[in-house]
Every structure is written in structure tokens, then in C-alpha cells.
Amino acid sequence: MVIRKAKVRDESRAPALPPRKASYTRLTRIDRGSPGPGAPSTLPPPPFESEAAVPGLEWWLDAHMALVAEILWLEQLLDAVPEGSAHADTVRRITAHTDTVRDALYELYCDAADERLAPLVGPDGALVPQVRDSYAWCERVVGLLVAVTSALRAEPGPDWTAVKLGFRQAAKIYPSQRSALRQAVRELGVDYTSPVEPLRNLPGDIEQLLSSTEELHVMLQKRFA
I need a labelling partner for 82 at 20 to 30 A (CA). Which of 75, 156, 189, 215 fits? Predict the structure, then answer.
């Protein structure tokens, strides 16, 4: 993916779609010890034969790639800030947590390749609002970090009053924990303990999304509240 220097999307320069994989097949999990541009979730999903195989999820693909682009742009800005800046180091740590949220959302997108998740990803599915809200909130957070990073590159630096206001505005759309989502996963009737079950990772993927968003929210509170 070409990293942009301005917040303008150029669809013609988007990365090529990877070869499609059949439904019911999860993507191979790759070690994500070093989050960033090389992480698998920076590539366009899905692992479906075609988007038509899971109708109605085009919005998920669009939201994912939008978040990927915003994080890559933020990382480019951070690369231009001299090392040794305490504020920049803090933003880098927070950015690493946005990578974790991004990857958790990607894993759930892979789960959605299984047709048994139709009750969760349909118009009234319990997973849809959690995913939509997570993308919206995470993009707002990245926008806040972009503003801070841009200000670090110039004098007199960030307006911390404005930054704190931006955090409070982002906090208003923080995706709340949804017990209904956990219950819906349990009611699918899937044996998640089976080592050959394609959806065996689903409960863990749900918990990873919830915990990673919570961890990111707490980090932001400690720094900007």
C-alpha cells in the first residue's frame, strides 16, 4: 500500500486483492509480534470466494480499509517526529494499541466467512453494532492522534486543551461492552472445543476485540482525560 502524505484516498493505488479463499476456510494466522504495515490485517480481506458469498458485508471491508489507511498515515507522521520526544513516544505506544484493535476486527471478519454466523452479521445481528461502533470510535481516536502528532512537528506544539476536548468527544462514541453479543455467540450451537471446528476461535476473537478496545480506551483516559 502506498502511504499517503495527505488525507486523500486514491483508490487506484490501493493494494491488489489477495487470492480468494473458499468459504469455511480461515486465513492462516501469522505471528503479529510486530504490528504495523506488515501485519496481515493491513491487507484487504475477505477470505471469501466472492463478496456475494456473504452479502451485506461490503461496509465491513470499506470500514476496515479506511482504518488501515488512517493508521498507516499516522505512522508516517510519527516517523517524521524526532526520536526522544516523550509525547511522540506516548503516541507511538497508543498507536500500537490501535493496531491490536484493527487486528481483532480483522479476525472477526475472517470468522464471518462461515455461513453459520449469518444470525450475528445480518441486519439485526448482535455483532454488527459492536463492529460498526468499534471502527467509528477507532477512526476518531486515530484522528485525534494525527492531530497531536502533526502539532508535535511544529511550534508551539499541541493545544492540550483542544486535545482533551477531542478525547471527550471520542469517548462519547466508545463502543460499550455488549453482553448480548457473548450470549448470541453461545447460542449458535457450535462446539468451540473441537480442534477441527472452523469457528473454534470465535469466542476468543470476540473477547480480543472487547479487551483491546477497553485497553486502548484506558490508555487514552490516562493520557488525555
Answer: 215
